[in-house]
Amino acid sequence: MNFDAIKVHSAPEVLAQQIIEQIKAGKLKPGECLPSQRELARMFEVGLGTVREALKILDVMGCVEVLRGKGSFVAENLSAILNGAPRLEDALEAVSLAELMKAREVVEIGAAGLAAEKADAENIKRLREITSRMIAVNASSETYYENDFKFHIAVAEAAQNQAILEIVKLLVGKTHTHTNFMDKALGISLPSEMKQCSQSAVRVVDWIEKNDAERATEEMRAHLNIVTVNLKQQFPRP
Q1: Which whole-number Å values give the CA distances from 126 to 2, 25, 204, in the listed order?
Q2: For residue range 183-198, what is the model confidence (pLDDT) as tens digits?
Q3: 66 DSSP β-pair partners
Q4: Mind listing the pLDDT tens digit for each residue in 71-81?
Q5: Integer angstrom CA distances of residue 6 from 3, 9, 14
Q6: Segment 23-57, tens digit of pLDDT
Q7: Residue 9 DSSP class
Q8: How far apart are alpha carbons 192 and 196 in whole angstroms?
């Protein structure tokens, strides 16, 4: 007995697909301004948040151009864009990952600075153990991500602030759901990328151990930015 796979689509994904179908059918024409976000929400009976996420997805795909203060416009060269656009699923994940990395920057850069002020000898020992494994490991991407995620949690632990630790655990856990995408679309687990990330992690710990909050925050920003840079290279408008 055979069954077709069931795929659960998010509300923004469904809305984005409906707008694409309207564009393909010629009901929305190149250069045309879409209805306002509130009007789209009313038309499709969804929330404003769903509309905003759908427009972000379409922007990443190149089907729609969102101009702040002016509105959202159907792209001019639709045939070329629709034929060469990222898959809807990839655009959705690119938007989700970009927002997640921005949230991680807000929390973890500050956590690194606080760790430089608060970390004790046990925290430093734990961080050194993890970064040593990151440098030494030459295995699967799964092992690499496991060590990298432990590093970020250990930095949060070194900040000695329970609220920050819980938030970092939540954000890191959400990042784990994107590892396949990060491998296939961004190449984060390529040897050169893993080496760059590992070396950056070591430098974060160096500055934490030296109680240099300013440089610890700068290096954590650079460490997190590795994913963001690769994301923007593959998806210029996430």
Answers
A1: 50, 58, 13
A2: 888 888 888 888 899 9
A3: 72
A4: 999 988 776 56
A5: 9, 10, 15
A6: 888 888 899 999 999 999 998 899 999 999 999 99
A7: P
A8: 6
Q: Judge contact between 46 and 81, C-beta under 8 A.
A: no
Give 2's pLDDT tier (boundaries 50, 70, 90). Answer: very low
Per-residue CA distances from 23 to 85, 149, 160, 169 (Å): 14, 41, 52, 41
Q: Which among 157, 102, 110 has a CA at the least distance from the CA of 130?
A: 157
- Element spanning 65, H or E: strand 64-67
**CB-based contacts of 55, cutoff 8 Å, min separation 6:** 34, 37, 64, 66, 72
Residue appearing with tokens 């590992």: 198
pLDDT, average across residues 173-187: 90
Phi-psi region of 64 (alpha: psi -120 to 50; beta: other; left: phi over 0): beta
Dihedral sign, Cα of residue 149, residue 219, residue 98, residue 157: positive
Scan for tokens 């799964």, then name that residue: 142
DSSP three-state, residue 27:
coil
Closest-CA residue to 230 (of 185, 177, 170): 185
Query: Rounded to an integer, what distance in angstroms lies between the CA atom of residue 213 and that of residue 117?
Result: 7
DSSP 33: B
Per cent of the chain over pLDDT 90 is 61
